[in-house]
Design brief:
By secondary structure, the chain is mostly beta strands. It has a single domain, classed as Hexapeptide repeat proteins (UDP N-Acetylglucosamine Acyltransferase, domain 1, 3 Solenoid). A nine-stranded mixed sheet has the order 1-4-7-10-13-16-19-21-22, with no helix packed on it. The termini are far apart.
Length: about 150
């Protein structure tokens, strides 16, 4: 059974067994969230989002339409996802460019991920990094723009 805090706002969606949804989380209709996850306070998950099993999303994260997060991913506090390449007020793209985060990747606190990028398996994005292009599997990236500094052993 999943646990949903009484102060969360969860629309009809799929939430896997053992996932914990904390206070002030907003989940829009249609989202799919796997089992044994931890969605911390003040998180927003839009409806066209798929989140795998054993995913931790720390406080202050907004996961926008088109995002696909695979199993065993960690997303640090206030990480910023984007999905619109050319955002303008009251102008919407015909399709959003979601972000893909592959299994076992970690995203550091306050990192910014630009639209349409993929973070590879076991990759690590450093705190505060601005990711402007795909990150290969097992790469560790830091900085603005994010650059590879080494690979995970």
């Amino acid at each position: 059974m999943s646990t949903i805090h009484k102060l969360a706002d969860v629309a009809p969606c799929q939430i896997g067994e053992g996932t914990r949804i904390w206070q002030f989380v907003v989940i829009l209709e249609g989202a799919i969230i796997g089992k044994n996850g931890n969605i911390c306070a003040h998180t927003l998950i839009e409806g066209d989002v798929i989140i795998g099993d054993n995913v931790t999303i720390k406080s202050g994260v907004q996961v926008w339409d088109g995002a696909r997060i695979q199993d065993n991913v960690f997303i640090g506090p206030n990480a910023t996802f984007t999905n619109d390449t050319y955002p303008r007020s009251k102008e919407y793209p015909t399709e959003f460019s979601g972000i893909i985060i592959k299994h076992h990747a970690s995203i550091g606190a306050n990192a910014t991920l630009l639209p349409g990028i993929t973070i590879g398996e076991y990759a690590m994005v450093g705190a505060g990094a601005v990711v402007t292009e795909d990150v290969p599997a097992k790469a560790i990236v830091v900085g603005n723009p994010a650059k590879i500094i080494r690979y995970v052993d």
